[in-house]
Amino acid sequence: MIYAGVDVGSLTAKAVLLRDGRVAAWHVEPVSATPGESARRVLEAALEKAQARRDDLTRVCATGYGRHEMTFADLERSEISCHGLGTFTSNPVVRSVIDIGGQDCKVVVLDDAGLVDDFAMNDKCAAGTGRTLELLARTLGVSLGELGPRALRARRALPVSNKCSIFMELDVMQWMHQGRRAEDIARGITASVARRVAALAGKVTLRPGVCISGGVSKNAAVVRELELALGVRFVPLAHDPQIMGALGAACFARLEHERAREHDRRVLRASDPVSSVDAAATPDCAGCTGGAP
Amino acid sequence: MSVFSELRRLAEAPHNDYLAAAARAGRPVVGAFCTYVPEELVHAAGAVPYRMRAVGSSGTALGDTYFSSANCSFVRRVMDQGLRGAFDFLAGIVFMNGCDHNRRLFDNWRHANPATGFSHMLFVPHAGSPACLAQYRLELDKLARVLRERLGVEVTDDRLRASIALYDRRRRLLRELAGLRRAPEPPVTGTEFLALMLAVTAVPPEDAVELIERALEEARAGRAPAGTPKLRIFVTGSCLEELSHLELVESHGAVVVADAVCLGARTFDRDVGDAGDPMDALARRYLARVSCPRMMDDVKGRMAYTIDAVRAYAADAVILEKLEFCSMMSGENYIAGHELAKAGIPSLALTRELYGGEVGQLKTRIQAFYEKVGNRS
Fold first, then answer.
1. In which order are the strands placed within the sheet that holds A116-121?
2. Would you tell me which CATH number, out of the four given (3.40.350.10, 3.40.640.10, 3.40.50.11900, 1.20.1510.10), belongs to the domain B183-376?
3. What pLDDT band is residue B61 in, cutting at 50, 70 and 90?
């Protein structure tokens, strides 16, 4: 049986296929104009990698901002729940998740089953998100992928506001006009984003076993700054941290299927007429020869 | 046609046929900004009390010329509506010192002077002590004098008693309808109830009573628009008038079964009664009913009300609503979150702008919260 999780966010679409409890294939690509189309494309790409067809899918769970547009999905779950279960599946010691996506940031605290116990999410401001990093990298004249390595080569972090993306950009431009090193400015940007996320994390009580997921987790400088700000060492994940939402969705697809099967079994048992039970034919009835009154 | 369709139509427009008919009959319409403005007093002065709202608002462009972006979206939107002539049918407005935003609304309104008749500020004390009650009583006398001067009608004891009886009847009917929401399959959704509250505070009370009676009749006939909800939700907050927002709260199989909001329990909690001096009785009821966070001496009372109501209505969780920049609800929600947690009741604090969009993020929070509550059950 194959379960699929599809996560359409603000910047990228992700799909994960679970077969026999393991990640059989996954795919990530930038979102297209419509969430439904992005979801279809990314799912087809994952199916191709797994050499499977749509008909092979047992259940599909949708998550992310585009979850309501995925008409082909069997169920949907919030990305908060999906990032929780996804990271927990990837590393069972995880109890707290910092997820920094394209346009939002979430901090999720999990119970011992990987389900949401508490969470905090940024308000409408995008100052602690991937979109800000993208904007400021462009302002600095470096690629998004280059921003982290540059920051890691810095001698110091130049102060950059964390109140608003636009004010951050003004600070960055001011440092650039003064001819300061791009590395030091990059470090200021990553430290600023990290402070913002750490403030959000302060709204919940983190449980030990903290990990980071989402696209921004690939920025090593933000990760390091965040570890310093929170005073923790992030636990590693067995899979690409960007696919945690889609992985969680695939796990929910499996859970839902198992629940439905269990429900059907119970209904079947409850509706079985007593007279139809053939005790002699019932297997594994220890000590019973079939002749008991 | 179901009365709930008619109520929805009434709720979605600032003006309606009932108000037009009242105007044709020579009855002035007077706006009131808060549940601490006794509608009975306005009614006894021969006017139709009208609960001020931002319904139909298309933006804040004009309102923003008077307010900063750090003022709450309710006052900015209402000001905008006023400047666009949406309330030109009013003969006057009774403002109230609910918070600093509302106080500045009064100042700006008088300065801008839209064609909405007189403006009067009712100063309501921030506590319910005997001294505050006496002061509030004096403020009501002052309001009665202003109404007499502006509308030419003396608020006599007999007129006031008749108005109190009418409004007590409206409150009893509303309580009865609200009480039906205790059922496992509530006959009225939270969105429908809010639409009803918006409607019955925008029509003459005589018509309101008839509308509520029709709603009760339909509710008793066994309707269950949402079936058995997966989750039963209690909502607290202050200014909450967006039907679309409650529809969002009621997504994913949840139904709002009770509330502590202005256009809800605060309007219909507790009768005035017919004993003693009617103005005294009026003052007592308004300072004694379930309070708003502006009242500084009743935090415990509000928490107890919420926890009792959550249990009485078998609510699974509480949503603590507030508008951005509402400092009163910020403090209140912080305390409520802790008190509810102590009582084992899950809660979610939501901050929004009135008619402000942000649907995607709100949806995610609400859905994740419901999933979290579902995980525990």
1. A116-121, A105-110, A96-100, A210-213
2. 3.40.50.11900
3. very high
